Amino acid sequence: MDSSKRVSIAIDGPAGAGKSTIAKMISKKLKIVYLDTGAMYRAVALKAIRQNIDTRDEEKLSKLVKDINIEVRHIDEEQRIYLDGEDVTNLIRTPEVSIGASNVAVVPEVRLKMVEIQREIASKCSVVMDGRDIGTYVLPNATLKIFLTASIEERAKRRYNEQLLKGITDVSLEDVKNDILYRDKNDSSRAFAPLAKAEDAVELDTTNMSIEEVVNKILGLIEDQC
């Protein structure tokens, strides 16, 4: 990849497909900024939950995001999410916030606010960005678009193991699978910027692929196209 050229890499896909893990590794390999867009929606959900606002209440959420302050900072090569000045990186990974994030992402005013922040970041530097609608809506002119997917069983297993590693032990594998099925339906059926594969995206089914295999495949595509 030409290091003097500004590039944008969009990685989309359903929950548990490995988007964040892969995007982080790509950003480190290429030494470019990684932006976890899902974390931004989680921050909105966390604020709503703290204020006892139903994460499906569009009217209240629309008002909530008018004065919300979400910052993405990179400290020691790690992305940290700040909500109204507070580092909430480790507070936004609970099952409750996961469901809430999928709910708030349906609200047009919430998405417009988050996309505004995301596009501003991408306009200033090379980025790898993952989410649900990066290639189709946030960065429609991205240099390279990837759509990651995997079987529901594999995605549930990955997410469950992630939670165990983070010390979250009060949910079962079946709970995680049901959570992902809910989010799949929610993300794919929302009216505004739904989860979808961009026409010019390269689809990768990672069910039987290791993380290294996926990363190497994408790095090869980047080398060819960027």
From TrEMBL:
Keywords: ATP-binding, Cytoplasm, Kinase, Nucleotide-binding, Transferase. It is found in: Cytoplasm. GO terms for molecular function: ATP binding; CMP kinase activity; dCMP kinase activity. GO terms for biological process: nucleobase-containing small molecule interconversion; pyrimidine nucleotide metabolic process. ATP binds at residues 13-21. InterPro entries: Cytidylate_kin, Cytidylate_kinase_dom, P-loop_NTPase. Residues 9-223 form the Cytidylate kinase domain. Gene3D superfamilies: P-loop containing nucleotide triphosphate hydrolases (3.40.50.300). One of its GO terms (cellular component) is cytosol. The keyword Metal-binding does not apply. Its main location: cytoplasm. CDD domains: CMPK (cd02020). It catalyses: CMP + ATP = CDP + ADP; dCMP + ATP = dCDP + ADP. Its EC number is 2.7.4.25. Pfam families: Cytidylate_kin. Belongs to the cytidylate kinase family. Type 1 subfamily. This is Cytidylate kinase.
